[in-house]
């Protein structure tokens, strides 16, 4: 047997296991040290009274401090008996002669109705390693790792520190796998033929973790010299992840329980930047729900002021804000709904002069523009910058939505290479629309935004959904990329923006 199962079988052969009943008897008699080797968040939810809390990842560092006599009888337990077996083997290597692992772990302990309590844990020490000489391991220097990461076959970097430590910063791109579960999870993170670099705060725990990988068939395992501390001292950056606050957890609780979103997805939304083209009929409902969903930064560009005739559909605005700039009004409404997001406003008309400056840095653009010149401007800028654009339009009782994703499907110019003649374009005149229709279309845009940002589902790339409000019918049309497209075609060349300023008298 190879891999983790073989490794565990070998270790179980070397470690003495004791049953829950025997442990209870031994505790009554006294003279035994009981150690809970689970992760701190597991221990906080209940542990055996009198047990020392030493997560398995910190065992080699903390055990010699906590139990100085190597002849002391020690019983280790975890949730089910696997991690404590691994930990017992590690303790044996440190010279502890009377170590055993509790079979069935805390789950079995609770099952038989044995008493437990809710412990108070002391704060995790800042730099808990360095006291015990680590096993020798092949190392890689911070500068060599930096170079390898930008090379053609970058190694898989795995950070084995505890969650509380990686929350303060880790090397960008590394996989986070606390040492407590490391052997159990490593096969899911990287196959045995991959080059691995293990990271801890100064390198000791990574070296302990590396030792077991050889027995699991991993051939190329290195340890980052000096750990994350060494990496930062060498002048390289650590990536500090944003974590959900208690208030985030409450606000987005209905997202967190959906597997496709979850904590990771919500964090992705919270670090996403979406630009709304216009705070009008489509931009209003889309921005409102995107703010509610926790899009971290919403930009809005619009040069209009609120007019009473807007209020039949532009629900971000209110009657008492007639005459106020739309972007200011939008900001008030969005921050009123969700004060934790950032709203950046551009009280300006989108032009060929400002479009690149405005669009740069956004992950996605929501096109809710109501005229052809800006539609082409938005498309050409998105294609040029490689930003996906969620496009929507409405007319009377009808609307349509599609996603233009550069490099994956068509762009707007693939469908309409040039604007129609002005007198043929309905949007130039006062085009009527039933107020509810942009609400529906704007929300279809909003869900496409969330899907594209999270990489879930099937976004409307290469597909256009047409909504008929009178018949209540959705129709889907296939859209194809045009290899001859002047914007995104195979031979398209960037020649700057075409202004359609004269178009229907705008300008
Ligand atoms: Zn195109």
Explained architecture:
The chain is of the alpha/beta class and 507 residues long. Helices cover 35% and strands 16% of the residues. The chain folds into three domains: 3-111, Oxidized Rhodanese, domain 1; 139-233, Rhodanese-like domain (Oxidized Rhodanese, domain 1), CATH 3.40.250.10; 272-505, NAD(P)-binding Rossmann-like Domain (Rossmann fold), CATH 3.40.50. The chain has 20 helices and 18 strands. Helix 15 runs parallel beside helix 16 and helix 15 (283-293) crosses helix 20 (436-454). The mean pLDDT is 91. The chain binds zinc ion (ZN). Residues 410-411, 413-414, 482, 485, 487-488 line the site of zinc ion. Zinc ion is lined by residues 410-411, 413-414, 482, 485, 487-488.
Provide a brief overview of the structure.
With about 500 residues, this protein is α/β, with parallel strands linked by helices.
Descriptive keywords:
single chain, 507 residues, alpha/beta, Oxidized Rhodanese, domain 1, Rossmann fold, 3 domains, eight-stranded mixed β-sheet, five-stranded parallel β-sheet, 35% helix, 16% strand, elongated, binds zinc ion
Tally of domains: 3
User: What fold name goes in the CATH topology slot of the largest domain?
Assistant: Rossmann fold
Beta-strand percent range: 15-25%
CATH class of the largest domain: Alpha Beta
Compute the average pLDDT. Answer: 91
Number of helices in the DSSP assignment: 20
Class inferred from helices and paired strands: alpha/beta
Named once each, the bound ligands are: zinc ion
CATH superfamily of the largest domain: NAD(P)-binding Rossmann-like Domain
Strand ordering within the main sheet: 13-12-11-14-15-16-17-18
Instruction: Return Rg in Å.
Output: 30 Å
Proper CATH architecture of the largest domain: 3-Layer(aba) Sandwich
Low-pLDDT segments = none
Largest sheet: 8 strands, mixed
Apparent shape: elongated
Helix content: 25-40%
Termini Cα gap: 75 Å
Q: How many beta-strand segments?
A: 18
